[in-house]
Protein: Malate dehydrogenase
Amino acid sequence: MAQAVRVAVTGAAGRVANSLIVRIASGEVFGPDVPVILQLLELPVAMKTLEGILYELQDCAFPTLQDVIITDDANRAFEGCNWAILVGAAPRGPGEQRSDLIRKNGPIFVEQGRVLARRAASDVRILVVGNPCNTNCLIAWRNGRDIPAERWHAMTRLDHNRAVYALAAKANVPVTAVTCMTIWGNHSNTQYPDFTNARINGRPATEVITDRQWLETVFVPQCQERGKFIIDTTKVSSSFSAANGAIDHIKSLVRGTPSGDWTSAALVSRGEYGVPEGIVFGYPVTSRGDGCWQIVEGLKLDEFGQQKFQITLQELIKERDVVQDLLPS
Ligand code: NAI
Structure:
């Protein structure tokens, strides 16, 4: 058997992690021959719930699940981890603005960035899911800079999957017919789901869906507001679709993206597409299955797209400015 992969998950007693953990434990992500050790982190107040999750995991008797560690100590949770999925964050409270949430969650990611740099395995990859995930990822990376910048990712894969579904439904084709989708920018309601570079059955999506007004005024806002729509409908935020986004993100890194297609992830910018260096920005990405992303270069945006791109970029710049004091140089 291969060497065990150690996967740390924070917020492990929460709703997203609940769906995530079981799929990782089952062998679905790393394969049937790779043992998994789960290292689950929670706040002290949620340890009893986490204990229950541990028992349920044991009762699944997954052949791939070698061990489960539950802890409220980040040092223990991140010790030797090869993957860290940072889900744990405080939710937005009643009347709170996005900037309040950023300030509230920022310190969590200062601490977790530092601990990851000290404790994680030398090949660690980090996926930040807890919101606001782009800026939380920025904070964690800047505080854990011993880990190379390209190993820090924030999740836009749920947005990507939502956009793929929406185009497929409109064109009345299976989701597999939709390729080359990109979520540019922030995982927020400023994100730009780029229908102009997307393809449906290999043809430009705009040739298959010729109703440009629908694309601009229904598709784009629907993707941007989908999270809120789910909350309004179910009274709780997306959980298993979010977990599925994280699973898809890691699978793409472990197995690679199909040739002729790409996916979406937010990465620390090195200036690609004119984004200031260091902003964690959603890009089109490919992977060869070696744990690394490559940003797809040379895509063109029309005037509508450029405008949307600038809006989401400006939001991320503002978010960075709000947490400037949490970003060591
Ligand atoms: P939840 O409230 O059910 O679970 C969050 C868990 O995190 C709680 O159990 C809490 O005790 C724990 N937690 C809080 N601070 C922690 C810390 N410092 N260390 C360890 N654990 C900590 O929330 P849910 O629904 O699971 O969502 C988790 C996060 O994922 C939220 O920030 C949510 O906004 C975000 N999210 C992101 C998505 C994306 O596409 N990027 C999609 C859906 C959710």
